Structures
1.
Amino acid sequence: EFFGEGITARGNELFQLTWQSGVVFVYDRQTFAPRRQHRYVGEGWGLTQDKTSLIMSDGSEYLRVIDPATFTERRRVRVTAAGAPLRNLNELEVVKGEIFANVWQTDYVARIDPGTGVVNGYIDFRGLLSPRERDGTDVLNGIAYDEAGDRLFITGKLWPKVFEVRVTRK
């Protein structure tokens, strides 16, 4: 009945989006006991958070900024790269004040300014898997950030590995 998608931990709660059902489930972070659920319009693709809000992607060029208590939309941020809309924003993670979003069907992660929606650059993850390892896999779509260790974990659907990555700026 429900296809689980983006998930994020906030305080003592876990928020889990559904892809096409328009429901977000909220669980107790320690026990995983259901606490409540909210409805939203459209698809749920990715979910992350900053200090005040949840941030949700829906496959469009917009990121939705959400009130965590009510799951109501506070505002939308239109994401653009070189002045053009950037669609298919999938898995999300806040990293050092930027929103990292993998662009679905690619091996690229966009680094987005959360205030303006402008793409500051891309991280190219092509070649993480060898051609043999890539056989039978699907898209890159897993991003997790360990703030204490300042490292990313990257994976994809049916990928045989999870990669620990340290991003350096040129």
2.
Amino acid sequence: MNELILIRDLLIQRNGRDALIVNSLQIQRGETLAIVGPNGAGKSTLLLALARLIKPKHGEILFNGNPISQMNDIEYRRKISFVFQDPLLMDMSVANNIALGLKFRGTDRDELRERVIRWSQAMGVESLLGRRAGQLSGGEAQRVSLARAFVLDPELLLMDEPFSAVDPPTRSQLLNDLSTLLSQDHRTTIFVTHNLKEAAQVGDRVAVIINGELKQVGTPKEIKEKPADKSVEEFLKEL
């Protein structure tokens, strides 16, 4: 078994209505799964369920073969990192922002410094380590947010449209850098976007969620050439 995540018969309700239905989804260890769909389709809801920030009505999510509902909360959260649309940086230096999670975990000082330098270099922000978060551009802030997520060495990286708030040239460069990094790092990643071109660039496979239901999973080529149903076909036409 090489799957990290297995989802079965999942139903999530929000405000009394069905927000997400996933009959079955397997996510392989080391793969990047890009999730696409219209606004409000349920993409972020899936990430929140995987982060245990929202509780399913029924069904289960298995992580390494174990139901996440039965795992210790702190133990599970240490296995994942979440990158949001907004960087959500603290009012402190870039170095301290990247190191924050490691400090909470009591990481040895020398190891902390080595990991901060490594991931600040990987995300191209090493020259900004002494700068305060409030002095960063949008692209720089999101690079720091990515470094803060990677530095924790998560087994699962969740990314909710992390580049939607930056300008197109910055977004393009961030996507190029991230796709290169993920291809080298082989970290299991779920990347949410509403842009199929971005999904194809970053993801090994693409999952399509429409109207709160997982409709199709496959390579970008498979989805473009053989949409699962009319709703997927119509979504692709609108892109």
3.
Amino acid sequence: GIINGIKNDAIERTKGMISAERQSGVAVALTIGEQESIPRELKRAYSESGTLHALALSGMHISIIYNMISSMLVILNISYRGRWIKLILAFSLIIFYSLMTGFSASIQRAAIMIFIYKAVEMSGRFRGRWSALSFAAALIIIIDPEMPATVSFQLSFAAVVGIIAIYPPMHKSFERLFGKWRAYKILSPVVNMLCMSVACQITTTPFTWFYFKSSPELFLIANLVAVP
């Protein structure tokens, strides 16, 4: 009840700050994960352009929140114990935010992966992305055995598989081919974003075709605007 109260208050505050219905609906989706206020035609436009993921709370949102909390608690970096306290505080706040926004598969996966990745890093052990992803999947299945059957679980983990398996070699190939060019240093952030989008699209396309019988054609151009 407390969590729902805070969620509803946040939604009302957001709508109060933005009077236009379309814009306030997008703002609520971006921050709280509630998409009911978004007009159907606007949601369809996001879907057809391949940028619907921007409206769904995902690992990108959790990473932003973690980095914000980590920056505010930077003073705790002075000691090993302080870094652990900072991680636990940040993780606790992320879990609270996750519960407030519905605790979707993508949010669970991102929260668990960040915690495991940072905990292993502070322990001085090998940081394996596949291990963190596998552990996140196993823990989510233990919490809710029916979760793997959901579209959000499949798309979320498929996207991360693309980022881990396809993105690194693709990005390195571009660096080998064009890394010596001066212009490449300027265009590097754009190339990085394009490689990330293509990698995610490759691994999620089979699922979007299976469930939605379509695949966005303008996702590369649209994501250059939507992701930043």
4.
Amino acid sequence: MKHEAHLKNEEETIRFGMILGQFLHEGGRVYIKGNLGSGKTTLCRGVLRTFGFFGAVKSPTFTLIEPYELVKGTIFHFDLYRLIDPDELEYIGLEEYFQCSNLCLVEWPEQAGQKLPPADVEIELMLKDKARDIILQPKSSKGEDICTKALTSWSTNRNRLDCKMFWEDEES
């Protein structure tokens, strides 16, 4: 079952990522699709903020992987846009990144062919002027739980979020 939401701007895309991140603390595989400039990295920035990372988040287009070793867990941010041959993924030890406790955010997963393990959640972002439509499609029971909770929380909290709220609440 697909879940959909409308995000008015970049700020809402970050906020949606923050809400999504609340339900990814046990790891998982999130595959993010969309055209160039549709907000894939912006969404990842929001997820990373939930885990306490407030630095610059750039798409790892040339390095393929950006690791984030954080107090709350390890996040691997992939950008496979420039991947020429899916077999290249074997050289980077792909299976080691996708261990159960890690969170893997993968932009352009379609570039990997059949080399990636199954996703928990597939996300598609579609840019419409400065707004975005986001479609979440669960691919596992874990993914269904993540999508349902994220969209329920979004409908309740979308206008009340402070970008540091989740991290600071858990620190105190």
